[in-house]
Amino acid sequence: MNLKSTAVFSAMMAAAFAVPAQASSSAWHEAQGGRIRLVTSGAPDAQGHLKGVLQIDLKPGWKTYWRDPGASGVPPSIDVAANPLLASAVIEFPAPEHHFDGTSTWAGYDQPVGLPVTFAMRASGKTGLIDASVFLGICETICVPVQAKLAVDTDAKSDDAADAVTVAAAWAALPRPASDDFSVRILTSDAKSVTLGVAAPAGADKAELFLAGSDGYMFGLAKPAVEAGKQVWKADIITRPKDRPSGDGLHYTLVTPGGAVSGLLPYF
């Protein structure tokens, strides 16, 4: 996000965190270092997808993790397997920042943050109780695991104005989808590292690249390097699967002074 959009988002989020819980949001779950709740807004679309947000209200000095928490962190997750109404819940992530804990550098957030969530209903047109199990880590000097059962009644007051602001603010803060002129691609890889090329607008020399491991991949911190007179990015490969997975690919977020994008890299 640029400075203007960051200011607008911060103001919207401040208003959202200040309102009391409404019927289309869960109660706050209080934890050491902060509190969390689920919020939804509107009705499911024609495909049975309902937009929501996992609000993480951090106390000053506390942090939480991005989708890749590093070697010892806890990524946010939502489990809806026991809910007969829901097929899945998919979390999206705004652009993170790098944090150093004295031992390692990891990606996350040090301010209250909203993580957009897409709830997929098992049947379109169905609404009712969303009963979800949420698990994440909130950290100061040590990481405190937070597990909570959060419930939202999507039949009740789904058009609440405050909830709509909360959900809209979280979704508006997401990085844009990657495009041909603003993206990351794999140049080369071997058993120990992967080299990445970056296409970005002006200010790419001040970019930050966040590469998420998943499906058996784990990476070290992506760092800029110069090869053949050109700037590239390199990341150590800590682990990789023996066989190429069948999933969608590896998530990344590229952050520059001109904005941020997220995309997927193919497995290699």
Topology, please?
Layout: H1 3-18, E1 29-31, E2 34-40, E3 49-58, E4 63-65, E5 77-79, E6 86-91, E7 97-100, E8 105-109, E9 113-121, E10 129-139, E11 143-153, H2 161-172, E12 176-177, E13 183-189, E14 193-199, E15 208-211, E16 218-219, E17 223-227, E18 230-239, E19 250-256, E20 259-265
Helix pairs in contact: 1-2
What does this entry show, briefly?
The protein has helices at 3-18, 161-172, and strands at residues 29-31, 34-40, 49-58, 63-65, 77-79, 86-91, 97-100, 105-109, 113-121, 129-139, 143-153, 176-177, 183-189, 193-199, 208-211, 218-219, 223-227, 230-239, 250-256, 259-265.
What does this structure look like?
The chain has helices at 3-18, 161-172; strands at 29-31, 34-40, 49-58, 63-65, 77-79, 86-91, 97-100, 105-109, 113-121, 129-139, 143-153, 176-177, 183-189, 193-199, 208-211, 218-219, 223-227, 230-239, 250-256, 259-265. The protein is mainly β and 268 residues long. Strands 4, 5, 7, 8, 10 and 11 form a 6-stranded antiparallel beta sheet that branches. The chain has a 5-stranded antiparallel beta sheet with strand order 1-2-3-9-6, covered by helices on one side. The chain is globular, with a radius of gyration of 19 Å.
Q: Compute the CA-based radius of gyration.
A: 19 Å
Show unreliable segments: 1-22
Strand content: over 45%
Characterize the biggest β-sheet: 6 strands, antiparallel
* Helicity range: 10-25%
Backbone shape: globular
Provide the succession of SSEs. HEEEEEEEEEEEHEEEEEEEEE
Output the number of helix runs: 2
Structural class: mainly beta
Number of E strands: 20
Q: What is the CA–CA distance across the termini?
A: 30 Å
Name the average pLDDT. Answer: 88
